[in-house]
Design brief:
InterPro entries: Ppm1/Ppm2/Tcmp, SAM-dependent_MTases_sf, TcmP-like. The protein is of the alpha/beta class. It has 11 helices and 7 strands. The protein has one domain: Rossmann fold (3-Layer(aba) Sandwich), CATH 3.40.50. The protein has helices at about 5, 10-20, 30-35, 50-70, 85-90, 105-110, 155-170, 180-190, 225-230, 235-245, 250, and strands at about 75-80, 95-100, 120-125, 140-145, 170-180, 215-220, 255-260. Helix 2 crosses helix 3 (about 30-35) and helix 2 (about 10-20) crosses helix 4 (about 50-70). The longest helix is centred in the first third of the chain and has 24 residues, at about 50-70.
Amino acid sequence: MDNVNNTLYIPLYGKAKVSQMGIILEDRTAEKIWAENAVLLGKKSKSKWLAYFMAMRARVFDDWVRKMLAMDSEVLVLHIGCGLDSRVHRVGASGVLWYDLDFPEVIARRRKYYSEDVDYHMVAGDAAQPAWLVEIPRNRTAVIVMEGMAMYLPPDAMERMMAMLSQHFSSAHLMMDVYTNLGAKLSKWKNPVTEVGVTTVYGLEHPAAPLGKSQIRYVREHSMTPPELVNQLTGMERVLFRFLFAGGTAKKLYRMYEYEW
């Protein structure tokens, strides 16, 4: 796999580690996949602080998807850039039409651990290109998750993808995490993805920036480190995590936005 695709092992490790600790996120699938297919990661990629953060980010996405499904069980769920993530199992999406999308080489690896059925489907394709959309039903209401992938799309590709989605689905709820421009600039030194060879990421300074002329509307910002999750840490770990990942400095680097149309 190429360097960007190899980044999927970083959140996989983090989710497996935290799940084993019994805090923040229960992800037995991540534990199993990591145990069977552990890869060599650098020191930054295996940081416990990053593991906590990855698990909290995933949990926030999970809780949001659960909320959307509770509002309308007839929606279609689309997870763009799914990697080896087990969200379809974590949120209890039985009976929900669900599509996990990633590059062909990622989906080929994913098929070793996941099986399709009448509701669950894996789609191979480049998110920024329209070809894969022929596999997704049109004119449905969709819940779209873009976790840990927006920062790999150049601004023109991001705007093109958002336009494609808004034209394909009659209505949708979408949530994604992004770097700010400052976060992207500092990524060269602080980001663990550099350990797997990724050298270029992109920032988003304003939530409306990727919307172009589409009908997509920005709704609100979400916290990736809500207090109820941070408080599952104890002692000095809780204090240091708040300083490193949950304070004002972190917000200048990394954000989470919700959209709808």
